[in-house]
Amino acid sequence: MLGRILRSNATTFVFGRTARADDTPAFGHLVKTQRPGLTLYALVYEIVVADDPFVRQIVAASDAMSPEKVEDMRQRRQVPVEITALTIAFRQGDALIHGIPPRPPEALQPVFPCSDEETREVLADFAFFRRALTCGDCPSDELLAASLIHAAGCQPPGRGRDYLTRAGRELARLLSNDPARLDAILRKLAAQMPT
Q: What predicted TM-score, i.e. pTM, was given to this entire model?
């Protein structure tokens, strides 16, 4: 489990957790949460490490603290992390539907990482491109590129490049009227394309 839902709406949800860098999902990774009859899939697009008065005191005194003491404080403190994710698809029964779910997740529902298999399945259909490209609250171009690069890494060996090539073709179709935006996204993908 990655954390629990703090708040949600029809298109996004925010979940909280304590700061443990080893298993915090990265920008662009796919996560899931469930409610009765629904599994919701979302792309992580914002990770905020919050502070509190005690953390501010530690920062103010950090020049006098050893690295070991700072690390001890990180491990012992319940440093809050809020992660925001854009809902792109949901499963209702056996059907995987790309779009906005009929209901948002409920508060305190657990959030889980998606396996490579789930990531391949959900991101195989490029219908999620429109949701990512029109997300007004997130860096949509970077989110789309990061999610595609992550999905390419979840493909069977030797198939990541083919996945990104197909994604690039779909992007070219969708963004044919915005060549500058298309070029920026394709450059991000080309820079990290598997050999």
A: 0.88
What SS3 class is residue 161? Answer: helix
Q: Would you report the helix, strand and coil content of the chain in percent, each value rounded to 5?
A: 40, 25, 35
Query: What are the helix (H) ranges across the chain?
Result: 53-60, 67-76, 116-124, 128-133, 140-153, 160-174, 179-191
b/e map 135-170, b = 16+ CB within 10 Å: beebebbbbbbbbbbbbbebbeeeebeebbeebbee
> Hunting for tokens 């999610």 — which residue is that?
147
Tokens representing residue 170 in the block: 């779909």
Please identify every stretch of the chain with a pLDDT value under 70, giving residue numbers as ranges.
19-22, 52-64, 69-79, 194-195
As given in the structure block, the two tokens for residue 20 are: 């443990």
